## 1
Amino acid sequence: MKLPAYEHKAQYYETDQMGIIHHSNYIRWFEEARVSLMEQMGVGYDRMEAEGIMSPVLAVTCEYKSMTRFGETVDIHTEITKYDGIRLELSYEIMDHTTCELRCRASSRHCFMEKDGGNLVSLKKSRPKFHTLFMKAIAEAE
């Protein structure tokens, strides 16, 4: 089962003086898509945080291919590219909803930490139900 792309309609406040979406907003869109993906997997951030787990961003890379303008809708295809129970890597492709033109390609890296202590956490060991949901989503995407 491949999870559907996250859809986002570009808002006016996201534009810059040139009338295009400011590059920093793509990072926010990745987060929206990541949160949506995790919710669809059954591992929503709210659920993880309720169990004392945080997942901070370690790195983001982004390559812009074409511009997005106010009012356009984009599809954000998000995929888990690496997961070991402690760290998570995702890839993103933002495509124009109508033309399928590639807007940008990106990736992000995350880790799992205890909310209170800030120590790294192995979901496989400390939260096996979350680990199982990640493994299931990866298997179903293949």
## 2
Amino acid sequence: MDARSARRRTASLQFEPVESRILQSVAPLIALSQLRAQAAQVHQLNTTSTSLSASTPTPYQQRRMAFNAHFLGKFAQGPGLYTDQRTQVYLKAEGTSNQLLHGAVQLAFSIPLNTATAATGVANLTDKNIAQTGTQIAMDLMAIPGAVDTHGRPTAFNWTVNGGSGGIYTSASGQGTVQIRYFPGGSHLHQGFVGSTAVIFTGQITSTGVNNILR
């Protein structure tokens, strides 16, 4: 055996250590890109919302906001509950509206002793299935000056939706007028009397549209 053959037999493979590295992942890059896109969308929405603050409703939205309701029922009138009240009136009636097919209303207001002070009150309109949906519209009432009948009872109020509303009207806003007609008759109460009434609400109500569990 010559020297060249001996060298070939003793040769072997050898491995040298190299610097350890962690494989790169694209997941963080994708997440970062998504976060940036979301931030841009939020900024665009905020900008759009600010620019639309002076906008007006479209014809479709105007039809959606329109609210009218008609109720027939009873009213009772009696003495005021506080020393600055001349009398108080309570109404309870049932009827329908373009937004509540079968509804009811309870309405109460007081007439102050000071004739220069407007009568104020509250109204609560409820859907017949309020036990299942919680749908109700709570309103604050302010009498319209000069709108009274021959007995000094207010016949027209301005109303605004308040935070007591619920169901599909949670966080709703709105305003309008309510007309009241009184038809005295029936049995008299102690220091007061009862009769029939007709109540008509007109105006606009805007709801968020995210509180209807039946939608």
## 3
Amino acid sequence: MRLVLDTNILIASLIKDSVTREILTHPEIEYLVPEFALQEIEANKDEIIQKSRLSKERFQLLLAELKNNILIVPETDIGHRKEAELIISAIDPEDSIFIALALSIRNDGIWSEDKHFEKQNIIKVWKTKDLVKHLGITHRPSTYSNQQ
């Protein structure tokens, strides 16, 4: 299974040890993210570290582990920009890059908790609860506890 990953899902998995983090490391799923998503995480790294209560070292280790299942797609490899804008610009123009990525590379949908993705009907939207059910998982705490 391949899913386009909304940046907020990745950030949430860095902040809290939850089922989201477990799903992100699941071997049956490969995730696609536009390269700017990692730039956004880097730009907000201090805030994420503060909220997560992880040390900088543990944060870097966790991010590296999560990136093992993530294919980082360069902006130049993402087409369908105009089509994506037509689909979601009236809803949330900042998210058109995720729709464009979903239209550009073979995938099974977008994983997001943002309700505005549900207002379009071109790309399948997966919620965390859908993935939990699909994968048949229950949450187990990871080795990255939120302790410094």
## 4
Amino acid sequence: MRRVDWRGLESFNELSERQAISTLYECCSSSIWALRVARARPFADEEALLEYADLILAELTDADLDEALSGHPRIGDRPDNPSSQREQSGVSGADPAVLTELKDLNKAYDDKFGHVYLVFANGRPADELLAILKERIRNDADTERRVLRMELAKINRSRLIRMLAPAGQFADEKAG
């Protein structure tokens, strides 16, 4: 689908349902999350959107959550979308030993929990993300599921705020 040029809550509220779902799916790769948030429009203000998005995320089934996780590359792998690339920018150029350990622990995490290690990276350096991974890999499955849901909520909020921001507000946005 061709990207629609728009910004702001008013414009978001005016998108067709299909456009809104597509746009929301770029924020979170859960079909049901994108559909339910899109169908709840119009939102009175940005906080209402963020709170509703959090509510829907909290209600996702494990299968829906797994679908959302599938849209996130491993920390340290080459990001396959602009949002992940921006969020993982602190990992690029990291010490090769840190990247190797991150890759190895990512694999161990995957093996233990059956899904990608998800963290609100937000430009944090690789050594910090590695330290967080070392702590989280000690979690039991239920605890880790709660933690990753909270991390996904932070990522979704950040992406929604960026989505609603006026064009050009963020210095790293490409014109086009």
